Amino acid sequence: MASRGSTAKVRATQVGTLGLPLLFAYGLLTMPLAMSGLVLLTYLPTFYAIDMGLGLAVVGAAAVLGRLLDVVTDPFIGYLSDQTRTRFGPRKPWMAAGVVGFCLAIWFLLNPPEGAGVLYLVLAGAGYFLFLTLLDVPYSSVGLELSSDTRERTTLASAKAVFQVAGAILAGFFPLILAVPIAGALPSLASTIIALAIAGFLLFVLFIPVPHRNATPPRVGARTAIRFLARHCRFRELLTPFALVQTGNAFFSGLAVLYITFILAAPALVGLLIGLLFLATAALLPVWQFLAARIGKAGAWKVGIMTSCAAFALLPLFGPGDTLAIAILFFAVGSTFGADAVMPTSMLADIAYADEVAQDRRQSGLFLAIKNAASKLAFVVPLAVAFPILDLIGFEARVADDSTVRSIFLLFFAGLPIAFKLSALAALNRSAAFSRSPAEGPWGT
């Protein structure tokens, strides 16, 4: 049990101090990160595979290499961020290095020279993933530390989700706004992402307080810290369903452009439908917050999982000309992204804060880094599995006339997401921690 003194050491900002200016200064940096993430997941694979002529299998392999680099660097950067001691606090020096490299990497990645090959894609992608980690892990760790109140931690996660959704909507509608194909929108997207990243970083540095003083207890070795998390029951019970849900979402998101282009046969609607996904996320965020207050964070998350499974099950029933029905289903799937983002992040903040009070040491960065690594590893799966198989069966040339090719694609796009999400739901239901009522523990608050 932590003493009163140790609790004071790790206490975050006082309850009730999270006004709109602070939430804006905290959340804005999420917007360019979300824009780059959506571009990377939805636009770039198709752009490099088809417009640049590299092929689905090659692009999938390059993306897998980048994501695997992330899985290694995320926990390492999270650990170093926790252990850093400077007069600017533990997080901001890492973010400063990250934002410079991130801006350069996103420019090169979205503006390839004519004739750029797989080596260019691998190097630009590796730079992007590395500097994104340097920027995002310390930045997001602050969100686990800014408040000692469990409801305010949900507010922080929701504020971050609002900017995440705003960035995704802007990126999704960008080709539509400029009235150009996706390839023509990428340079303008890169400039917008860079401008927002610089503005968001400056606001964060100027207005976000360092929530913890520099750690004074002895530093804990990386191996010891990771072993501790590996044995952490509550963290494992959160990480397993989170990784499964992210894998399901990755299949859907990674193949959405191909679905709209070849199954709906409406490539002009790519920007509109991708934007609709994240417009739905923004619209339904208050609903998930309301449900979390009524039935607990885990309960709200379960409702989101079941809703998305129902929408996935209906998507294979529609095809060319069914634009309205598909738009409704995309809206339904997008509405659940808020639950998938806010609830596990807020629950992780509950875990991290309770442990830091008890142990009197900063470790939010490592908690968050391992969660991020699990998410990024999940998004490797469709690139490593679906893209090479679709390339092997000649998806682009045969999908219009071959029902078997269409069925294989729909298995990846809708069938596997249902399987992964139902497995996550089963994991949540098996967990003793998630079965508590809202009054009995942090999962429900």
- Low-confidence runs: 1-16, 212-222, 436-445
Strand content: under 5%
Sheet/helix structural class = mainly alpha
- How would you characterize the largest beta sheet? none
**How far from one another are the termini?**
22 Å
Mean pLDDT: 79
| Number of helices in the DSSP assignment | 16
Number of domains: 1
How is the CATH topology named?
Answer: Growth Hormone, Chain: A
By CATH reckoning, the class would read Mainly Alpha
The residue fraction in helices comes out at: over 70%
> Which series of helices and strands comes N to C?
HHHHHHHHHHHHHHHH
The CATH architecture assignment turns out to be: Up-down Bundle
Give the tally of β-strands: 0
Cα Rg: 21 Å
Q: What is the CATH H-level superfamily?
A: MFS general substrate transporter like domains
Shape: globular
Structure description:
The chain contains 16 helices and no strands. It is an all-alpha fold. It has one domain (4-444): Growth Hormone, Chain: A (Up-down Bundle). Helix 3 (30-51) packs antiparallel against helix 8, helix 7 (150-178) packs antiparallel against helix 8 (182-207) and helix 7 packs antiparallel against helix 11. The longest helix has 37 residues, at 323-359. It is globular and about 60 Å long. Residues 1-16, 212-222 and 436-445 have low confidence and may be disordered.
SSE order and pairing:
Elements: H1 4-10, H2 20-27, H3 30-51, H4 56-83, H5 92-110, H6 118-143, H7 150-178, H8 182-207, H9 222-230, H10 233-263, H11 270-295, H12 297-314, H13 323-359, H14 364-392, H15 395-398, H16 403-430
Helix pairs in contact: 1-13, 2-7, 2-8, 3-4, 3-7, 3-8, 3-10, 4-6, 4-14, 5-6, 5-8, 6-14, 7-8, 7-11, 7-13, 10-13, 10-14, 10-16, 11-12, 11-13, 12-13, 12-16
